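pls design
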């Protein structure tokens, strides 16, 4: 069975954010760092070389594959800020998403060009709802 390549690492979250070349993405990343910390009350952990995660859960699929992954987090990718909001994608948060602003979605992810494009109050609520949903669904960690 293949092992999950994205695992917690001991590298510095602050060093990683400070290494982000794009100044606006770096500023937005520091803002997201504080936002996620205030909502989750968890310390950030690097997952792989580029994802900042908050909390952890254990999953097990019917196929037998299992592993651990971050409950929520973000990554300042070149194309966009990628927010990992698995709870939003598993649960129905369409009414909130409609009020968010400019974004795109993928499987478990929300893609935002810059924080100025979205409503921060709505984003805070989405992170909170997603985090609470995942904590309730996977209470083991």
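designed seq:
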């Amino acid at each position: 069975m293949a092992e999950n390549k994205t695992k917690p690492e001991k590298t510095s979250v602050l060093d990683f954010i400070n290494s982000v070349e794009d100044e606006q993405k770096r500023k937005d990343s520091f803002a997201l760092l504080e936002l996620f910390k205030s909502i989750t009350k968890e310390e950030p952990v690097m997952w792989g070389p580029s994802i900042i995660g908050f909390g952890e859960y254990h999953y097990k699929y019917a196929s037998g594959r299992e592993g651990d992954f971050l409950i929520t987090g973000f990554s300042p990718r070149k194309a966009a800020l990628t927010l990992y909001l698995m709870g939003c994608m598993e649960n129905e948060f369409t009414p909130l998403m409609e009020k968010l602003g400019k974004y795109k979605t993928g499987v478990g992810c929300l893609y935002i060009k810059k924080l100025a494009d979205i409503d921060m109050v709505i984003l805070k609520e989405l992170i909170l709802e997603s985090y609470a949903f995942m904590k309730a669904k996977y209470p083991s960690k």
